[in-house]
Specification:
By secondary structure, the protein is α/β, with parallel strands linked by helices. The chain contains eight helices and four strands. It has a domain of 130 residues: Rossmann fold (3-Layer(aba) Sandwich).
């Protein structure tokens, strides 16, 4: 809501709609609202996600199902609601924001890894369906990004180990093989490049952002 308000304050056109991406009815309503407001949807960015940390034996069914519902099912429902319209018009861009964890795996995040791996597999499958339609489907896989979600991870480590913020952050980055946190703007730039691919040459790609280059 705040982003849409800021856009309008800046003289741009912006709309905001509330939606639980795990609820098929709400996703359908979102698709209808978006079409009514804008006429059509050409670009879809699936970025809703959640995560927890638990060793395998302590993961509850509720925890597992919630992460799978938000990260994987939400991506499926939103793409399903928009994809056919893009194909009919002969142009569209879908970018699914996944994670390096979906490619590499790690301790204590089995549910999150499984959900993000599902997003990557889903991306490749739908990209195959989109071949030669004018629609492309790609994924962006960042490591740890400078966001509140990473802050929560660092805070959990501080609580469990007694480490300082910097020590806990360093342990997170070292375990992931990152020299630094990735900026949210870097993720946005990668998404924009995929959406700006007018000829649709990039389809079914997994773009890795691991902080190995200069910020």
């Amino acid at each position: 809501m705040e982003v849409a308000t800021q856009m309008r304050n800046d003289g741009l056109e912006g709309f905001a709609f509330r939606c639980d991406v795990t609820d098929p009815r709400q996703v359908r309503d979102l698709a209808l609202s978006a079409r009514e407001a804008m006429g059509q949807v050409d670009i879809l960015i699936n970025n809703a996600a959640t995560a927890t940390s638990n060793r395998l034996g302590r993961i509850t069914m509720a925890e597992w199902e919630h992460i799978m519902a938000v990260n994987a099912t939400g991506t499926f429902l939103s793409t399903q609601a928009m994809f056919d319209g893009m194909v009919e018009r002969g142009w569209g861009r879908v970018v699914n924001v996944s994670s390096l964890a979906g490619l590499q795996g790690d301790r204590y995040i089995a549910a999150y890894v499984a959900a993000e791996h599902a997003v990557i597999g889903f991306t490749k499958a739908v990209a195959a369906e989109a071949e030669d339609t004018g629609v492309t489907v790609n994924a962006v896989c960042p490591g740890y990004v400078d966001t509140p979600l990473t802050d929560e991870t660092v805070a959990r480590i501080m609580h469990l180990t007694g480490k300082s913020w910097q020590e806990a952050l360093r342990s997170v980055l070292d375990k992931a093989g990152q020299s630094r946190l990735i900026r949210a703007g870097e993720v946005a730039e990668s998404i924009l490049k995929l959406c700006a691919d007018e000829r649709g040459k990039r389809n079914g790609e997994v773009v890795i952002l691991d902080g190995s280059d200069t910020p």
